[in-house]
Amino acid sequence: MRFRMLHLGGLLAFATLQVSSFSTSSVLYLVVDKSENTITLYDQSDWLVQWPCTFGNNDISDKLYQGDRRTPEGRFKITSKYPHKKWNKFMRIDYPTKEDYAKFEARKKAGIIPANAKIGGDIGIHGTWPHEEWAVENLQPWTQGCISMRNDHLNELYQIVPVGTSVVIRQ
Length: 171
Fold this sequence. Notes:
15% of the residues lie in helices and 33% in strands. The protein is of the alpha+beta class.
């Protein structure tokens, strides 16, 4: 059992987290709140644990196109999980979805984004470079649109959620 410092709407609280206490039969899902810089694990009845996270840009609006360093919004699934040599571990999400392609094409048609823009991809939840957890602790945006967590927090989450877990990303 370990003590965990949680960010709860700007307040700090202490809770205990025991990874082995999570049932594999529980329906778990994640909510990433870009305005609060948090990723929260839920089960069917309530939230279980919350960790700080950071993104690629201080602009927390929806991702428009590849290279804008924004994090997409919507409902996604974790499609794969694997160790990553730069960022500890990586949990890929299924961006872009059909809905993302529809928004992207509508924005192109409306002239909101350049006609030659690409939608992008390779979005996921990952850690930091070794010994650079300060980027998350200081909520410094640094990714290309992914969600970054401290490596120790990511290691816990990685053990808990399986491929197929739902991920909601919102402002």
